[in-house]
Design goal:
Length: 145
């Protein structure tokens, strides 16, 4: 199916009626061009409500720093999977959360995701928190004796 658009940004709508993997080619050309610039993208069409198996999960966040608040997020593949994510810290005394105030020490955050097919993926992330060094400058006093 071919469609055209002169809008900026370009907008295209297409309804895929069958599941599968489709290649979409986009060609852009203005009046000064003899050959259009093209690019392609793969579109994976799945049935609504279909379970998509997880292939990986990654924790994104700081790996070192000073005492204070930190936020950790996750990315997972494929991004059209639906899943619950659980965050587990190695110190055991806190709830499973992705936002923490960390004091001096070394911490390990483990993230586990399980989706509807029962597939489980995990990632671990270590962060080292160091003390903030404070420099104290004293005045130098010289006296003649």
């Amino acid at each position: 199916v071919t469609g055209t658009s002169s809008a900026d940004p370009f907008t295209f709508d297409h309804v895929f009626t069958q599941v599968g993997t489709y290649t979409v080619e986009i060609a852009v050309q203005n009046c000064d061009m003899a050959v259009p610039v093209t690019d392609t993208v793969q579109v994976v069409v799945v049935k609504a409500g279909t379970c998509v198996s997880l292939t990986g999960i990654t924790i994104v966040g700081e790996t070192s720093g000073h005492p204070g608040g930190y936020t950790f997020t996750t990315t997972y593949a494929p991004n059209n999977a639906s899943l619950p994510i659980s965050y587990t810290w190695d110190d055991g005394g806190t709830g499973a959360v992705s936002v923490r105030t960390l004091s001096v020490g070394v911490y390990t955050l483990a993230v586990t995701a399980t989706n509807c097919s029962g597939a489980t993926v995990t990632d671990t992330h270590t962060i080292t928190i160091e003390a903030v060094m404070r420099h104290i400058y004293l005045p130098l006093v010289l006296r003649n004796s």
